[in-house]
Design a protein that fits this description.
Length: about 350
């Protein structure tokens, strides 16, 4: 049967499906079809599909009825998937347990179900989790053959890359996959890229795969261990230098070095602009992430960058982008700017 479908590369399938679920347009009555590295995700209402996605007509089979959490619960629960972990954000512990049991008993493929137990906190940007369902699987963790993987460790796949991570020890947001890909597509072979807050490598690993020489720093020791593992599993270790430490200290070893800098620390990136300016070469593009009020989402970041770069650099704003809604009347935004000495 021919139905409207969103056409995306298979590597972007999960994050696209999640975005379509959030938009309320996934057609659960038809199967997702894969064809030569491309996925066709059926949708109920093409007008409700976010503008960045391509909608085409495609002949897809009617879906075999699967048992969903909603079938068990009698309502549609809200949850997010990261690898084989299902993530809930429920204030009521009893409701969270009920949803976790329904996920376990449904056809959803999930190793673990967790509920957010705290906000993101501290310099390392981690949070607490209540593990509601899931057993400790067999197998190695980070290379030790005698260790079992923790229940909060998973492998996330994004645009053809694999990222091993543990949500209890590192920060990671699958919702930023499209934004990361947008930046990665700008990187040219031979560039020198400095990732100031690299985490487990969702920017740094694709940068290196694009042919850049990458220096990736993070304060979180666990994140840097995963970053090195992810560089290895994606075959880019030779072009990626991972450094654990305060980026202000790390940056002193790379002054006047970078052709491109990523500053993905939205709440406090402005505190590190002096370091970014010191690391920048004669011509450098900075991707500066910020969270600001909807009345002036880009102005505070641009003013801060100009103040830090003056008088050494001319500043040109290349792009202003709203990445996502962060909170009521607040946006997570990105400024792409060029510093020219």
């Amino acid at each position: 049967m021919t139905v409207p479908c969103v056409r995306v590369p298979a590597s972007a399938g999960e994050e696209t499906r999640q975005a379509l679920v959030e938009a309320g347009v996934v057609d659960h009555g038809h199967d997702i079809v894969a064809d030569d590295g491309v996925l066709f995700i059926p949708v109920t209402d093409p007008t409700g599909v976010p503008a960045e996605y391509e909608v085409v007509d495609r002949d897809v089979p009617t879906r075999r009825q699967q048992r969903t959490p909603a079938d068990i619960l009698g309502f549609e629960p809200s949850y997010e998937r990261l690898g084989d972990i299902v993530i809930l954000d429920e204030d009521d512990p009893e409701r969270a347990r009920e949803i976790a049991d329904a996920v376990r008993d449904s056809d959803v493929r999930a190793k673990t179900v967790v509920n957010r137990a705290s906000k993101i906190r501290g310099e390392l940007r981690v949070r607490d989790w209540d593990v509601l369902s899931g057993s400790v699987p067999d197998g190695p963790s980070g290379g030790s053959e005698t260790e079992s993987r923790p229940r909060t460790e998973t492998v996330h796949r994004e645009y053809g890359y694999e990222f091993l991570l543990d949500i209890s020890t590192v920060y990671f947001s699958p919702r930023l996959a499209t934004e990361r890909h947008r930046v990665v597509e700008q990187v040219e072979p031979g560039e020198r890229v400095f990732d100031m807050f690299a985490g487990v490598g969702p920017f740094a690993v694709p940068f290196a795969d694009a042919g850049a020489d990458v220096v990736a720093a993070d304060l979180n020791e666990a994140a840097v261990e995963y970053l090195r593992e992810n560089a290895s599993r994606n075959g880019v270790s030779e072009r990626l230098t991972a450094i654990q430490g305060d980026v202000r200290e790390v940056g002193r070893e790379y002054e006047n070095w970078a052709d491109r800098i990523v500053m993905n620390l939205p709440h406090s990136a402005g505190e590190f602009l002096d370091t970014a300016v010191a690391v920048a070469g004669d011509d450098c593009v900075i991707h500066y992430y910020d969270i600001q009020h909807e009345d002036d989402p880009f102005g505070p970041g641009e003013r801060a960058i100009r103040a830090a770069a003056a008088p050494e650099y001319e500043v040109t704003v290349l792009n202003e982008r709203v990445v996502r809604s962060y909170a009521p009347h607040e946006y997570n935004v990105c400024l792409d700017v060029r510093l020219s000495r």
